[in-house]
# Entry
Amino acid sequence: MTKKAICLFSSAGIGELGIKQNEIDIIISNEIIQNRHELYKVNYPETKCFTGDIWVEKEKIVNYFKEEYPDEELFLLYATPPCQGMSSNGAGKLLDGVRKGIRPPIDERNRLIIPTLDIITETRPKWILLENVPNMKNTIINDENDNYVNIMDYIQSRLGSEYVGKGEVVSCSDYGIPQVRKRLITIFTRDEEGKKYFKELGTFFPENEKLPQITLRQAIGGLPSLDSRKGYESRKDFHPLHYVPIMKEEKYWWVSNTKEGDTAYNNQCVNEECGFQGNQKHIDVINNGIAQSSKDTPIYCAKCGSLLPRPTIIDKKTGKRRLIRGFHSAYRRMNWDEPASTLTKNFQFEASDNKIHPEQNRVLSIYEALIIQTINDYEYCFEINGKLITRSLFAQIIGESVPPKLIDMICRKIIDISSGQWKSKYLKSKQLSLF
# Structure
């Protein structure tokens, strides 16, 4: 009998590639955004898909599982609740809104853990795998009784003593993924071998299991070059997704003068008669606990007065040129010999955090992003009704997903633990004290 999984907040099913790789049957999926779920159905045709709000769909999900699989035990429940309300960016906006009196103090998206736990307690999976942003562990929600509780404490209280586990912050770059993407991975189990494992090691991610980091150079350094000028922006003869958007001339000037690992906001004078390199650099400002971009970064050379190749715009009201607001991570080149920074849904924009190619004047191509997110390591169809999805949807799906290689590794280890193989495979540097 094959192992069964239920997946919640599935998006387009990118993380689920790691589940599928381990021959776990995904029997149920839930996702509220229809175009994501349509793509999901293409790639997981055997899965029963409930498209809609989980608050509305939760009873249908539970009833379907109990009716269709009355005598089977659910092996895994995998859930990735929306993280906007938990992320550092989301929290900052929320805090600012609360101070202005224009938003409630609790983001409703954070409360989606409640219907998630409703489904978990009804289906009783042997293993629970939750994935979210690191700040989830500090998030406060109001529960069903309108009590304000820490979300991790809420999860533990709903699961009770039957389940053992914890939430741990991991970086994808520590597990053979060429991207510094930190995630809170929460794993709970009622599996007896799983309980023994947690009791013995105290962590799902021991230090001795980390892998050497893969750099951006190793991941994409050998691909054909591109440039965000017309006529040089595409190499679809190499791969249909290896192309980039054309950059406006002024932006191209900023980017072309930016050094590897630096931001265009720090660019120095390019006047051949001056070339002064001591102009003030760009810094972020912390105001009332909220990070704000500096407004004092100079845009003209302090020595010769020439316009610096820094992000600026003509103000429509004053007619004068001014600095474009942005953080120190905006218009910044990546480093060849480090893993990429976290891919977001804005990775195709120059202003996005650390997303300019280390040396070429462009952002990442879709194909490069698929490699960095390890999606390219798995078989996946990006067509709906025979038509390739849009560049915008590509970016959203990639930015919203967890690298499937991480989920693959976790599921493979869960299966090893469940079968008892962990005693020989995961205790190499540790003396057994229990068996």
